[in-house]
Hints:
This protein is α/β, with parallel strands linked by helices. The protein is 48% helix and 12% strand. It has two domains: 141 residues, HAD superfamily/HAD-like (Rossmann fold, 3-Layer(aba) Sandwich), CATH 3.40.50; 76 residues, Putative phosphatase, domain 2 (DNA polymerase, domain 1). It contains ten helices and six strands, in the order E-H-H-H-H-H-H-E-H-E-H-E-H-E-E-H. Strands 3-2-1-4-5-6 form a six-stranded parallel β-sheet, sandwiched between helices. Helix 1 packs across helix 5. The model has no long low-confidence stretch (mean pLDDT 96).
Amino acid sequence: xxxxxxxxxxxxxxxxxxxxxxxxxxxxxxxxxxxxxxxxxxxxxxxxxxxxxxxxxxxxxxxxxxxxxxxxxxxxxxxxxxxxxxxxxxxxxxxxxxxxxxxxxxxxxxxxxxxxxxxxxxxxxxxxxxxxxxxxxxxxxxxxxxxxxxxxxxxxxxxxxxxxxxxxxxxxxxxxxxxxxxxxxxxxxxxxxxxxxxxxxxxxxxxxxxxxxxxxxxxxxxxxxxxx
Length: 228
């Protein structure tokens, strides 16, 4: 069954989640942050994901902005940088995360080839709207789907089911793309054709479902979709 719809995770896949800490470290007064920003960005992202999983398991859902803020609190304290002004600035920068360089052209090419395109993300609608507009990719997306419509974070099946609700597709018609191995595993278990964007060269996660395709970045996605 040919692919009709290409669906992307947002954070870490289309948007560089290290961008907020990197940008803040380069601003005036950012000398202290400049010494630790890579570790802070890593801790922030790790805790952000852990909190989504724990909230899903314990059925204590919260808006992704709350989860992101809580994770940042932890990361700042771990770096001995607890500061309300810095926290506020980093949260603001998270709304303007840069897209990876290949993203705009990749999405434009998919649209020219006739594919439907969408984001399916843990992010709240407001966060996703801000990020897609800031990156200039909103016009290349047919839908921006958020877990807020089902009230549970990935990898719950109810999240992936939103694609069929929006596009009327069968799972086999969907190419799902994520930089998160656990997200790819969840999507593969749901029945999507999957591509894992493994920018860092990590091992494949030892989970029941594995990626159908592994890519170094998003550049090959239009060719891959056409070949499936």
